[in-house]
Each structure stands twice: as structure tokens, then as C-alpha cells.
Specification:
Blueprint lengths: L2 H22 L3 E9 L5 E7 L4 E8 L5 E7 L5 E7 L2 E7 L4 E7 L8 E3 L2 H28 L5 H25 L4 H7 L2 E2 L2 E2 L6 H17 L4 H21 L5 H5 L5 H4 L2 E3 L5 E3 L7 E7 L6 H15 L4 E8 L3 H8 L5 E5 L6 H4 L7 E5 L5 E5 L5 H8 L1
Parallel strand pairs: 1-7, 13-14, 14-15
Antiparallel strand pairs: 1-4, 2-3, 2-5, 5-6, 7-8, 9-10, 11-12, 13-16, 16-17
Length: 388
């Protein structure tokens, strides 16, 4: 065999072996680093699914406080959680990166540093900003309860804090549409309330933009499918609320009035208040949202009618949608009528009453019949006087 043929065979064997190794082998990513004060502790790495998390690997931290976890890469970009005791940090894994984590045991979840993953660092910044805003809101609420600050000061500073988080999140979303940090930012909450509400027209654009980018760059990812379905469903719901559905007055002629009386929601003291308990009175049923910029002017208009007719069997039953509970309690405690809240984002009240925008108001007579849907152009006091 000539030297030339031997080189050809060797090269062929090398390519075949290399191809077989690539085909049968699996790619991996690495998470490593140093956690001071955590020697002999165990770190756990979880993969975050759409509905839960699965343990994928673990590692014991060495005497020198270092650790290393090397595990199979996800097929598509995905979110992971690195847990140390009850402390957890979120990581964004694309495929083959090496992510380095450094920090201390006692402040593992709040003061860690991350290298090798820009997306993981964006998520770190978002999480720490959430903690900062949540802490600020609790401090403001404590000051308000102690009467150290006025209600207007509380609401102003609370808005500034939450807007600061939204600004950071929006910047990350718009500059990383196809990445995990944008996906993560969309679904975050502060004190149990969503930061970006897909039922709000402005916020729905962010969902649509990220869904489009993921569908383009990661079309087979389960997160893409989840995001597309979620976005399309909420978009359809929002459009239905904005659309020209049949008038509730048409519906009221064919449905028993008891359906409209079937509202029972928590008041300031957390006890449910039933609308039907006011049967025999003239009721202004008001659906609103306190954080809207027009809410103060709306309540001023309501108060004029309330003060005029409150001694004539007139009641206002006000339902506020999706208002952070600390803001709701502050506003509701200063209002003289019945205030309840609806925290369910999928409330059937929107479809039952054909609520297309907030505020939406109805007048219910003593017999429990809806006699008027009050429009923006209507004078509330005049309409109440007609029914009384």
C-alpha cells in the first residue's frame, strides 16, 4: 500500500470516527464557581419547565468553596434554577456555555455575580430590582399606616418604584426579543401582581414581539408554543372585550336579573359583600380600576351623585379589577360607598357584563333590573334621579 493511499484511509477513518462521535455524543454546558462559606454543602440544578421544575444534576461544594456541574445541554434555550438550601438563582442556558457563579453562602440569592452568560446576568438584574421594589412598597405601606406620609405621597412613590422596574424590564425585552431574558421578564410579578398584563393594549405588544421572535428563531421550542398560545388567547380575549358584542341591555331582557345580582367579592375587611344584599335599593354598579390615571376624576363624579342621593335609598357598589391590594385598600378606605375587588384576571364579569373598557357603569333599580348602561357623556346624577 502506497503512502498516499495510507494517508487517504487514515483521513477517512478519522472523519468517520469524528462523525460517529458527534452523532452519538451529547453536548454539555457547565455551571461552576465559588461560594464562600458553603464548603461541603450541596448545590442542586433544576430545569424549569412550563409548569414545574425537574432536578437534573447536583454537586457538592469542595473544601475550597468551589464547585462544578457539567450536564447535558437543552435542545433549545431554557431556564434553569441553581439551588443552595432554600436560596435559588435563575440561569439562562442557550447550549454550550460555561456559566461562572461567585458569591457567599448567606447572600447566595441576592448578592451573587455571574459571568459567561449575558442573559443570566439580565435575569439577575431583573430579580434584584423586583426585590428592591417589593421592599420599597412594604416600607411605604408601613409609613402610610403610621401616618408618616400622605396618601398622595404613598401613591406617587409607589408608582415611581414600579415604573422603574417596568423601564428596566422593557429595555431588556426590546433589546433581547429572541432571548430568555425577554421571555423571563414578561411573566414576572411584584407582590403577586403581573408587571406586564397581556389584556392591556400597550403590554400586549411586548408579548406579541417576543412571541414573533421566538417563533422565528426557536420554532420548535416548547416555550415558543406556550408563548404563542398564551399571546394569541389573551389577544383574542382583549379584542373580544373591545369588539362590538351584543349590548348587555339586549342580554338583560332574556336573562334572569339574579344573574346580574350574582356578585360576591371581598371588601376592605376581606369579608365578601354580595350585590344582592342591596336588593330594594337603587344601585349604581361600577366596574373600575384604581391605578388608571382617570380614576380620581371618575370617583369625584361618583361622589357628587352619592352625596346627593345617599339618603334616598341609593347605593354605589364599586368593583375594582386587578389593583395591587395595598393601592386598593388605600383608595377604598377613603371612599364612602361599597368597595370590593376582583383579583381574578380571567373573571367572568367581563363577559357577563360585556365590559369593553373601564370604567363601566350600570344602574339597577329596586326590582333588580338593569335599566341603564351609563355612558361617558351621561350626567350620573341626572340618570340616578330618573330611576329614583
Amino acid at each position: 500500500m502506497t503512502t498516499k493511499n495510507l494517508l487517504r484511509i487514515s483521513l477517512l477513518l478519522f472523519l468517520v470516527i469524528g462523525f460517529t462521535a458527534c452523532k452519538n455524543g451529547k453536548s454539555h454546558f457547565t455551571v461552576k464557581g465559588k461560594i464562600e462559606g458553603a464548603a461541603d454543602s450541596t448545590l442542586y440544578l433544576y430545569k424549569r419547565g412550563i409548569t414545574g421544575a425537574d432536578l437534573v444534576d447536583s454537586a457538592k461544594i469542595g473544601k475550597d468553596a468551589t464547585f462544578e456541574i457539567k450536564t447535558e445541554s437543552p435542545q433549545y434555550p431554557d431556564l434553569y434554577v441553581l439551588a443552595l438550601g432554600k436560596q435559588m438563582i435563575n440561569l439562562a442556558v442557550d447550549s454550550l456555555e460555561t456559566i461562572e457563579i461567585s458569591g457567599k453562602y448567606k447572600t447566595f440569592a441576592t448578592e451573587y455575580q455571574v459571568k459567561g452568560s449575558v442573559q443570566s446576568d439580565f435575569i439577575r438584574k431583573l430579580y434584584l430590582k423586583q426585590l428592591e421594589v417589593s421592599k420599597m412598597l412594604k416600607q411605604l405601606k408601613s409609613q402610610l399606616d403610621k401616618k408618616e406620609i400622605a396618601d398622595s405621597t404613598y401613591q406617587s412613590r409607589a408608582r415611581q418604584s414600579t415604573f422603574a422596574y417596568r423601564d428596566l424590564a422593557k429595555d431588556i425585552i426590546l433589546n433581547n426579543l429572541r432571548d430568555l431574558s425577554a421571555y423571563y421578564a414578561l411573566f414576572q410579578q411584584i407582590d403577586g401582581y403581573v408587571v406586564f398584563d397581556p389584556l392591556v393594549k400597550e403590554d400586549s405588544r411586548y408579548y406579541a414581539a417576543v412571541a414573533t421572535a421566538w417563533d422565528t428563531y426557536h420554532p420548535k421550542s416548547s416555550r415558543t408554543e406556550h408563548l404563542k398560545n398564551y399571546t394569541l388567547n389573551t389577544l383574542a380575549k382583549r379584542r373580544a372585550l373591545e369588539g362590538k358584542a351584543p349590548s348587555i341591555m339586549d342580554k338583560a331582557t332574556t336573562v334572569d336579573a339574579s344573574e346580574f345580582y350574582n356578585i360576591s367579592l371581598p371588601g376592605i375587611d376581606e369579608r365578601n359583600i354580595e350585590l344582592k344584599s342591596f336588593r330594594g335599593k337603587t344601585v349604581l354598579l361600577d366596574f373600575t380600576v384604581y391605578q388608571d390615571e382617570n380614576a380620581p376624576a371618575h370617583n369625584v363624579a361618583l361622589n357628587k351623585a352619592y352625596q346627593k342621593f345617599k339618603n334616598s335609598g341609593f347605593v354605589i357598589y364599586q368593583v375594582s379589577f386587578n389593583t395591587p391590594i395595598h393601592l386598593w385598600r388605600t383608595s377604598a378606605s377613603n371612599l364612602p360607598w361599597v368597595c370590593v375587588r376582583e383579583d381574578n384576571a380571567n373573571s367572568d364579569l367581563t363577559s357577563r357584563f360585556n365590559i369593553q373598557a373601564l370604567p363601566t357603569m350600570f344602574l339597577v333599580n329596586k326590582e333588580g333590573e338593569i335599566v341603564k348602561r351609563i355612558e361617558n357623556k351621561d350626567n350620573i346624577s341626572e340618570e340616578v334621579a330618573k330611576v329614583l
